[in-house]
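subagent[fold] <- orchestrator: predict structure for attached chain, return tokens only, no commentary.
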Amino acid sequence: MVTEEEIKNLVIARLSAMPKNMKISIGTYGSFDKYELIERVKKRDEIGRKIIEVQLFYLRSMKSGLVAEVIQEPCV
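subagent[fold] -> orchestrator:
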């Protein structure tokens, strides 16, 4: 079983790999750079929990092949 700490560390590692100048917009909360997002994940505040949720959804989609299916669909 994967612990919450391991999940948090995985998400932080993924965020750390983002380019320095990249920002992610989160609804009405605004835009955040990778350093701000990492701090939010560490604090586990509302935004940090949302980032964890989104990252886990993405990883599960990769595992199930959903992302590969979308990438392979022809553009019309």
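orchestrator: received. Logging for downstream: The first strand starts at residue 23 and ends at 26. The helical segments are 4-16, 34-43, 46-64, 66-72.
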